[in-house]
């Protein structure tokens, strides 16, 4: 159903060289989009022809990315703000320095605000566009031992996204949020390994501890492609009347209706 859905459209996927971002970039490319991918380091996948090296925590990165895209293509149709990570140690408030808070908010909130601000004028001029911000289930269900500063930055992203959707909806631009739960990505696997090391337990025990803490009803991690499927739908014309929404893809982890 998605074949050629995005033919002639230009999409930006930040953090698109691995994990959820790569799955999204691959999905949109397969459906016909010209996909521009950003990350701090060049990908090992040589099939990615449209790559911009950028550290999104640096304030000037957003304007540089926007300029490169608009100079090359003259338009932007889809923005998927996927870049993000839990950069801080676990252990609660006493372990978090000002630098930890600053780094998490720079990457997980302010970088997204900057990317959108840099590219929204082009979307407004063309009277069409889709923005999908990748958040996390931890923004609604924070785990103080693991995700305090990260969760707070993503919670701010959720509020910002709703406000932005209200502002630009009448201009033909849709803004939605996708909130994954526990996803089998390199970052998540590294997180579990680090948890096992710091807790002096096995990796299997650390995995079980995370799954028990989050409370995933389906009892497994999501595959990145399962997140990408929803993102592609929300970016497509099939979702033309959906904006200002936040979709959980968490295997039933959310304890509320």
UniProtKB/TrEMBL annotation:
InterPro entries referenced in this protein's UniProt entry, alphabetically: NAD(P)-bd_dom_sf, SDR, SDR_fam
Any Pfam family hit: adh_short_C2
Family note: Belongs to the short-chain dehydrogenases/reductases (SDR) family.
Name this polypeptide is given: SDR family oxidoreductase
Organism: Chryseosolibacter indicus
């Amino acid at each position: 159903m998605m074949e050629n859905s995005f033919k002639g459209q230009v999409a930006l996927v930040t953090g698109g060289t691995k994990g959820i971002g790569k799955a999204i970039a691959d999905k949109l490319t397969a459906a016909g989009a010209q996909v521009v991918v950003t990350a701090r380091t060049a990908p090992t996948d040589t099939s990615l022809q449209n790559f911009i090296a950028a550290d999104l925590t640096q304030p000037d990165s957003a304007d540089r990315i926007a300029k490169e895209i608009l100079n090359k293509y003259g338009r932007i149709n889809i923005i998927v703000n996927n870049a993000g990570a839990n950069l801080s140690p676990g252990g609660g408030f006493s372990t978090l320095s000002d630098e930890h808070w600053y780094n998490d908010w720079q990457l997980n909130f302010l970088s997204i605000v900057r990317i959108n601000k840099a590219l929204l004028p082009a979307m407004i001029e063309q009277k069409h566009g889709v923005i999908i911000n990748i958040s996390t289930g931890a923004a609604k269900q924070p785990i103080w031992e693991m995700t305090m500063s990260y969760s707070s930055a993503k919670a701010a992203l959720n509020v910002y996204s709703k406000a932005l959707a209200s502002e630009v909806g009448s201009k033909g631009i849709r803004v939605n949020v996708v909130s994954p739960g526990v996803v089998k990505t390199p970052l998540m696997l590294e997180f579990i390994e680090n948890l096992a090391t710091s807790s002096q337990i096995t990796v299997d025990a650390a995995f079980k501890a995370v799954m028990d803490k989050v409370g995933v009803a389906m009892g497994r991690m999501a595959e990145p492609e399962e997140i990408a499927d929803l993102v592609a739908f929300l970016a497509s014309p099939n979702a033309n009347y959906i904006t200002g929404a936040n979709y959980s893809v968490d295997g039933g982890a959310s304890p509320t209706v």
